[in-house]
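Throughout our pipeline, every protein is held as a single compact record rather than as scattered files. The record that follows is passed on verbatim for readers who wish to inspect the format.
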Amino acid sequence: MGAPVKADQDKTTRGRNTHSVDESLNSEIVQMLEVDGRMPFSEIAQKLQVSEGTVRNRVNAMKDAGLLRIVAVADPSASEYKADAMICLKVAPGTTPQSVARRLEKQSCVVYILWVTGRFDLLVELVCDDSSDLTTFLEEHIHSVEDIVDVEVMLGLKNYKNQFLLKRDV
């Protein structure tokens, strides 16, 4: 008979593709950290039947590779923000989406900018302390500039899910 299988090897068996097993274990670790980013590696290891060192090494490797970033996520429904909006922008001819994105990303209320295909060029998400801050942002950074030719503003009414960091001090 073969040697006993170590706890770290419980997820692998002979003849299995270790790459897919590695991805599966990494995925399980990430799922647990999504529920609680402060969950101790020892608890994750116990639940996944691997060593604490395996979990620590996997997490560090994913962080080093840029695949994982553990951050705090505020619940928008419990936060003090009173105005949330998605803004679709069409940039002016001769202007690049990147240049508009770089201009807007400097604003603290802008929490998300995505270059998109379709009718618009950029999708921008804002969270503001109140509706007057939203109005001021729209007047100063959207409607009074020449690098944007069309805009559609969609005010958030109720947030059902948000897994993204709301504000970052850069």
In short: Confidence is low (pLDDT under 50) at residues 1-16, 165-170.
